[in-house]
User: What shape does this take?
Amino acid sequence: MARKFFIGGNWKCNGTLEEVKKIVSMLNEAEIPSENVVEVFVSPPFVFLPLVESLLRPDFQVAAQNCWVRKGGAFTGEISAEMLVNLGIPCVILGHSERRSLLNESDEFVGDKVAYALSVGLKVIACIGETLQQRESGSTMAVVAAQTKAIAEKVSNWANVVLAYEPVWAIGTGKVATPGQAQEVHLELRKWLHDSVGAEVAATTRIIYGGSVNGANCRELAAQPDIDGFLVGGASLKVACLLSLMKRHHSFSLAFLFQIFWPLAV
Ligand code: PGA
Assistant: This one.
């Protein structure tokens, strides 16, 4: 079964109420390929989740950018997975490199988070990726395999997991991985899943790429057989760009993909 292209915008810690409303209304008006062809999500900061969920067209999904590792309680400043479910948020990004590096989230902690979020019914976009130093020392595969293993040890059902390979050196730097570099890691990851988890999981799990993706570089990346979509940061603040990403891949009109990722920046 073909893996459905999966593309999302990570708005990170950006946006005002007005900007968010503007992006959502642009997205709502966009002409995009059907849900059968491409799955689209946007990931606003927590405070905007209910608003975006209530205003956004139903064929697009909303994802949180994080959630707490277990049931809520006395964890000041955290947001629980149950709260996301309660608000009707279907999806969460976990293990983003900014959280791994700035907030010291370990592989094990991310694995626990992924397992807990799945257990309450959320879909998870689990991020993995190596630093520049790790790449230069030749340990890229060892790093991403260890990150994936920490997830695999806690998760038995992969149906609601999307893996996002995001080389740290490519995030927000404008230095995108070449299609060859990205494909090499995606293929190795799929082999790792095959050998360590199972053939079915390897064949069906979407592995999306993130790191300086934009309308100009997405076509070649999307043409790689093991790249199943994109997690887009900076360019996702430009709605036009996100839409253009989707369209380029599926040869719909270019104007479209360029709409998802534009508004905050215009
Ligand atoms: P970028 O971010 O597209 O701005 O590089 C990607 C991400 O952090 O998910």
